[in-house]
Amino acid sequence: MAEDLSIIQGTKEKQYQALLPQVKALIKGEPDFIANLANIGAALKEQFGWLWVGFYLVKNEELVLGPFQGPVACTRIKRGRGVCGTAWAKGVTLIVPDVEQFPGHIACSSLSKSEIVVPLINKGAVVGVFDIDSVLLNDFDETDKNS
Ligand code: SME
Fold first, then answer.
1. Owning domain of residue 102
2. In-domain check, residue 25
3. Is the entire prediction scored with pTM above 0.70?
């Protein structure tokens, strides 16, 4: 079945408002976790045009690269390392306005200037992280965090 995303212009809030119901419809009724992560990442990349949108999943005490869109990325990240490993260890969303100012940031692409990492929590445990990179400095805020 062909799926078309309706891309809209406007404020970030308006874009999320239009996008989120479409994403929910896209994954509704599909039980496969990886397929759903793939479509969620693709939808956000298509709407916002960010550099890199993707998931790392916790496997054997490491984050392992999952579905993503964008330039090739590092495959494994240890707990507490980089922005992703820190978001995993702390279980909180991290917004990094300037990646060069984040101690231990892992530079998968030199084009990445700012980043947001949201932990995926299931039954109280972090099972992965959702990572988004932008070519712009300071591209993420509370709207992204809460949406
Ligand atoms: N910058 C991340 C690594 C993953 S890439 O950005 C895709 C980090 O510091 O954990």
1. 50-146
2. no
3. yes
Q: Give residue 1's pLDDT.
A: 47
Q: How far is the CA of 19 from the centre of ligand 1 (A)?
A: 25
Contact call for residues 86 and 54 (beta carbons, < 8 A):
no
The set of protein residues with a Cβ atom below 6 angstroms from ligand 1 is 52, 73-74, 77, 82-85, 105-106, 108, 112, 115, 131, 133
Task: Tell me the CATH number at 97.
Answer: 3.30.450.40
Ligand 1 atom 1: residue of nearest CA: 106
**Residue 2 Cα to ligand 1 middle (Å):** 32
DSSP classification of residue 116: E
pLDDT of 8 reads 87
Torsion angles phi and psi, residue 22, rounded to 5: -65, -40
